[in-house]
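Protocol step 4 of 6: structure prediction from sequence.
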Amino acid sequence: MIQINDLEFHYPTGNFSLSIRALNLARKEKTAVIGPSGTGKTTLLNLIAGIITPDRGVIHIAGTEVSRLNDNARRRFRITSIGFVFQDFELLDYLDVMDNILHPYRITDALKLDASVHQRAGMLATAMSIGDKIKRRPNDLSQGEKQRAAICRALLPQPKLILADEATGNLDPENKTKILDLLFTAVDEDDTSLLAVTHDHELLDRFDRVIDFRDFGNFGF
């Protein structure tokens, strides 16, 4: 599902740099990424999603070399093939919860919005225990409710790859388990893979594999 080779990236300002010799993620694999803050975990997710591009190296996602696509092609690929759960949610304040969940279908003709999509959105919201809040605006939600709305949006298109940046970070233990169950169900039922950045070490034994980011630069995965 993910194949990364000889990846190098640095920001124009500051001293941060990221170097990954090799990283591979198999189809239907559930992988957790751990490591200290500031080591580049979120940067890696942004590179995989094509939000930013590497200075050198190759990133393949489901057979597509994302690192060679132009801006428009990367955006289209991201919307149709990647479900990204952002750490800061990226919800639009002027839309209610349901419209936020449906938003990927509003911004591209590559996804078709029909009755079945509306039904699936409602089912996801109910599974996340926010089915009674779909007409509320994000500012009227708790942090945990915002997180769950963002996860619904990421899962709705049934993407090939789910990228989760601290998807359980704002949730109580019961909802952490519920969220992880839903993410894992998506992997098992939709032929999807999951790469999740997390500081919830008590959840790590549920993943197929754990990558410690402190090992990057010295080892390939």
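Step 5 (inspection) to follow. The chain has one domain: 2-215.
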